[in-house]
Amino acid sequence: GTSGTGRSEGTRVDEYEMTVPSDQNDGASSGGLLSLEVLAILYKGGEAAEQEARLLGTVENQLGLRPWLESEGHEFIVTDDKEGPDSLFQKHIVDAEVLITTPFHPGYLTRDLIDKAKNLKICITAGVGSDHVDLNACVERKIQVLEVTGSNVVSVAEHVVMTILLLVRNFVPAHEMIERGDWQVSQIARQAFDLEGKVVGTIGCGRIGYRVLQRLMPFDCKELLYFDYADLPEHAAKAIKARRVADLKEMVSQCDIVTVNAPLHEGTRGLVNADLLKHFKKGAWLVNTARGAICDREAVAEAVKSGHLAGYGGDVWNVQPAPKDHPWRTMKNPLGGGNGMVPHYSGTTLDAQARYANGTRLILENYLTNKPQPPEHVIVGVGKYETKAYGQR
Ligand code: NAI
Q1: Which of 101, 128, 269 to mutate to test the pocket of ligand 1 (most atoms within 8 A of CB)?
Q2: Which of 56, 221, 262, 264 could disulfide-link to 131, CB 3.0 to 4.6 Å?
Q3: CA dist., res. 392 & res. 46, Å (int)
Q4: Is the ipTM of this complex over 0.90?
């Protein structure tokens, strides 16, 4: 699983010694003159990545960073091997100064690993969503956490709209029927509806949630609702005719379709659980491309199987890769439809990969040359949260 570990161990350690950061702990590097160790956890792209160079987020294509990093004299370790104490992630995190991860194949940077990561100064998420990093522990250790904010928000919003449509219109069973060689229109039409005239609500109305509602406007939904502790600016809410509902139970009880677009943090983990699902309308659809762990695995599977939810769709799972027997892979509603699950790829279209690879490089360049970072990219600055998106503090 590793690819190009660069120089020999001995050289690396020797060179690293020269880059031991100053005790000011201000997050700045030594100015780009000295070498540092950059560790990246990416997913294996295999044949596809060899054939398609734009699959930048893979171990093969390495976010396009290797030629540049090596020309600057830095060591770049790239691996997909991320689970367990013998993994290359756990081995190399001990010395790395920079960690690059993606939400798609998350290297889970737990508090335990942070304790071992004696040189770590900055974590960069190539993408959006840094919940796989223990942010509170990073605050305490003064490790910065940045993500490429905005890099894939349209990619995800488009996927949400697609998933809403395919659930509401009962697309997946219809296509499966065609592949099987069958033709029984009534079997499909008995659970196919129009999006027009439905009430759609988003949990979280930041960059993605807002873009979802914006993209739904031409469908003439009955109402667009949002639940978020941050109010939309008045002009933004007006532009999409969205109404804020202050109570989550009240919002979901009014929705035909609920979409989840909030980050995963202490306040959203397990937020959509059996209790909240009771407040959903019978036959509602739920779409979650935010994070799997925001929705309770068993409660959602039960709700789909019983038909309380007509369907559930999205691309995010509580553990990734999802185990083969994960109930969300195969759950169906009583009429045999209602499953819109795919692997985590909504935010990793080739268009998105170009943007987050560029953004990752920009963040690295700023770090190496001691320049300020774009403020919207900073999740945890040196010793404190710089965003309100990961919980109210
Ligand atoms: P954002 O920071 O622009 O917006 C997040 C919004 O959620 C903010 O308005 C915040 O106030 C709100 N929020 C936070 N906690 C909340 C709570 N308890 N209840 C209601 N609202 C709450 O972030 P953006 O760009 O919209 O992304 C949102 C999330 O989507 C990311 O954190 C990530 O987990 C996920 N994502 C998934 C991708 C995929 O490929 N499936 C790709 C990109 C992001």
Answers
A1: 128
A2: 264
A3: 41
A4: yes
